[in-house]
Amino acid sequence: MDNATVWEWVGYLASVVVAISLMMANIKKLRWWNLLGAALFVAYGLAIAAYPVALVNFFIVLIDAYYLVKLYKAPVIEES
């Protein structure tokens, strides 16, 4: 398998991971899956020199990371 084909599959995988993230009801799971998909798209975009793809997904990684930090720092409210 040549290098271009490998990166093409990384792009497909990134698409599937982002699609999976959008099916999550749990916001923490959504953010984690979306972060993974966006990180894969960053690698894919850089590998094929599609810098706009890499840049926008880099910002999505930062946004997901920011909200994950907020979610994990938030106090847990237990229902009774």
UniProtKB/TrEMBL annotation:
Domain of life according to the entry: Bacteria
UniProt keyword terms in alphabetical order: Membrane, Transmembrane, Transmembrane helix
Transmembrane segments: 6-25, 32-63
Protein name: YgjV family protein
The organism of origin for this protein: Shewanella cyperi
